[in-house]
UniProtKB/TrEMBL annotation:
Transit peptide listed as a keyword: no
Entry protein name: SLC13 family permease
Keywords, in A-Z order: Membrane, Repeat, Transmembrane, Transmembrane helix, Transport
PROSITE patterns attached to this UniProt entry: RCK_C
Record-annotated membrane-spanning stretches: 95-118, 130-155, 167-188, 384-402, 408-427, 434-454, 460-480, 492-509, 515-533, 553-573
Domain of life: Bacteria
Lineage: Bacteria, Pseudomonadati, Pseudomonadota, Gammaproteobacteria, Vibrionales
Pfam families: CitMHS, TrkA_C
Topology in the lipid bilayer: Multi-pass membrane protein
Alphabetized InterPro entries for the sequence: Cit_transptr-like_dom, DASS-Related_Transporters, RCK_C, RCK_C_sf
Annotated ranges, domain RCK C-terminal: 196-280, 281-365
Subcellular location: Membrane
């Protein structure tokens, strides 16, 4: 093995180990690998520049920026409201089809974010029976078109860098549509297996809030019942923390003492309720001054995972104060500032003056789904104009020679000039991490091919699984990509699997397109974990889910999805022999 192959293999092993075994951010791992490749002479400045300015990557960036305007329209929330009428199977079908079609054109995370609020407010069905199907439908919808998900465009970048013809807008549509139909046939009956978390169940799974009694509090020396803390609506006193220990459960005749920390359980509106009780100082009270509250979900790659609010220096780092924490079904013990944060935790924040200016850090640490950013909507007239403009851009790319990249660039300028979005919106949304990860991934994919490492892997693979032939190799590439997607990230899975799939196609002397599509569909097959895909993580805490809820619905869906994809791949994209 040459030193080039050894170096590239070492970089790949380091990336996979870092993604699976550590909390190091993917962007740092990929950027570090690209830096080492440049410093060791494996790649040049010109090659790096070309990878970071690939047309598919620029198209992805523009789509993300344009989505700033699309998220402000009324379309997704209107669709969610319309899908809330009817029996559960009808609602699942309508919600699945509408969210999938929207996700084919709009970033699926934006679709889920916009629909969550309307689904939570529907009075006919428990949100916990709708939110996981919503997430899965959005993932399935992302496979319908080339722009449905960022992974599709990233795979297209690999395709172009390998010297193949670019994927068409509707290249994945046939298989994606079949997978969507089959997926809905699973989601509709299996949604009955999801829990119903509403009514009394919702009230038993609330946020944790904390308040303190000052020395001059009028509540001191009186019992819990005498202070009226046993008759609060949708709010109850769960624990009292004193220097000599914790009192739980709290009895009505328990006296309150100066310095007591009272731990309550309640909903978001409980923040205002506690502020109105004389003598109670809410956790973070001195930073609250009439601001709107914001709910965020801790990302699986957040640097604050495993740290308490105090250890993470939360207020200093993000200019925001946490006033409540929620973790699905789990009961959280200890003071608010001493609870270790986990991925999927929902935090209620009071933002400071520079909170929004720190948005890049926020996007890395949190999934923002309710509050300042999610509540702003355009007027109906402007919503229609924005949607019509976007449809016109897509139509022009399909019906005229104008590339989608050019149309999106022009559309973005129009949105800026008309004031629909601002420069601050673009600064807030600019996907720095996506650009770095994709550019570095393209570099690594090229190095795997150029160094001969992917060919070496291909030869070993063909020798080990010779009995399966090209079909067996195709199935293996898909399953490998699916496994990597669940273990690491979609984009990283595509970056690692594409060179192998391409080399196997060359080794068998067949058209590479079936292997390319195996990577594309395998990288979107994240159904069995709340951490594998951002939309799954979004609904995790909102729906009060447990991990087994994803298994109940995700395992059968993953099996059916994979069966459909693997059955249709060699039919739609035949393994035809090509000239060497």
């Amino acid at each position: 093995m040459s030193w080039q192959e050894t170096t590239v293999l070492t970089l790949l092993v380091a990336i996979v180990a870092g993604l699976v075994l550590t909390r190091i951010k993917p962007v740092l791992l990929f950027a570090g690998a690209a830096f080492v490749a440049f410093q060791t002479g494996l790649t040049s400045v010109e090659a790096l520049t070309a990878n970071f300015t690939a047309p598919s990557l620029l198209t992805l960036v523009l789509l993300i920026l344009v989505s700033c305007a699309l998220e402000k329209t009324h379309l997704t929330s209107w669709v969610a409201r319309q899908a809330s009428h009817g029996a559960l199977p009808t609602v699942i079908a309508k919600l699945g089809i509408s969210s999938a079609l929207l996700s084919a054109l709009v970033n699926n995370t934006a679709v889920v974010v916009s629909m969550i609020g309307a689904i939570k407010r529907n009075r006919r069905h428990s949100p916990s029976q709708l939110l996981i199907p919503l997430s899965y439908s959005a993932i399935l919808g992302g496979t319908l078109t080339l722009i449905g998900t960022s992974t599709n465009l990233i795979v297209n970048s690999f395709v172009e860098r390998a010297g193949l013809s670019s994927l068409g807008f509707f290249t994945p549509t046939i298989i994606g549509a079949a997978a969507l139909v089959a997926g809905l046939l699973v989601l509709i009956p299996f949604s009955y297996r999801l829990p119903r978390h509403d009514g009394e169940q919702e009230e038993s799974l609330p946020y944790v809030l904390e308040a303190r009694l000052s020395a001059d509090s009028p509540l001191c020396g009186r019992s819990v019942a005498d202070n009226g803390l046993r008759a609060l609506r949708r709010l109850y006193l769960a624990e009292i923390h004193r220097q000599d220990g914790v009192i739980a459960p709290v009895c009505p005749d328990t006296p309150l003492l100066a310095g007591d920390k009272l731990q309550f359980a309640g909903d978001v509106e409980s923040v205002a309720t506690l502020q109105e009780i004389p003598g109670l100082t809410l956790f973070g009270q001195h930073h609250i001054d009439g601001q709107n509250l914001i709910e965020v979900v801790v990302s699986h790659s957040a640097s604050i995972c495993g740290k308490t609010l105090k250890a993470a220096r939360f207020r200093e780092t993000f200019d925001a104060v946490v006033v409540a924490i929620r973790r699905g079904h789990e009961k959280l013990d200890g003071g608010l500032g001493n609870i270790p944060l986990h991925a999927g935790d929902t935090l209620v924040l009071v933002p400071g003056k520079t909170f929004r200016q720190d948005s890049q850090a926020l996007r890395r640490e949190f999934v923002l789904f309710n509050g300042l950013e999610a509540s702003t909507r355009l007027s109906e007239r402007k919503s229609v104009a924005v949607l019509a403009g976007f449809v016109a851009v897509i139509g022009a790319a399909l019906l005229t020679p104008m590339p989608l990249l050019n149309g999106l660039a022009a559309y973005l300028v129009v949105l800026l000039v008309t004031g629909i979005i601002s420069l601050h919106d673009l600064q807030r949304r600019f996907p720095v991490e996506v650009v770095v990860i994709v550019g570095a991934a393209l570099t690594l994919a090229q190095l795997m091919l150029a160094s001969g490492l992917s060919a070496r892997f291909s030869d070993w693979f063909m020798a080990t699984f010779a009995a399966g032939g090209a079909i067996g190799a195709l199935v293996a590439v898909y399953l490998l990509t699916l496994l990597l997607t669940e273990l690491i990230t979609n984009n990283a899975a595509a970056a690692l699997a594409f060179p192998l799939g391409y080399s196997l196609a060359l080794g068998y002397g067949v058209d590479p397109m079936p292997f390319v599509m195996a990577v594309l569909f395998g990288a979107s097959a994240s159904f069995i974990s709340p951490y594998g895909y951002q939309t799954n993580l979004l609904v995790y805490s909102v729906g009060n889910y447990q991990l087994r809820d994803y298994w109940r619905l995700g395992l059968p869906l993953s099996v059916v999805y994979s069966t459909v994809v693997l059955t249709l791949l060699p039919v739609v994209f035949p393994l035809t022999a090509v000239a060497p």
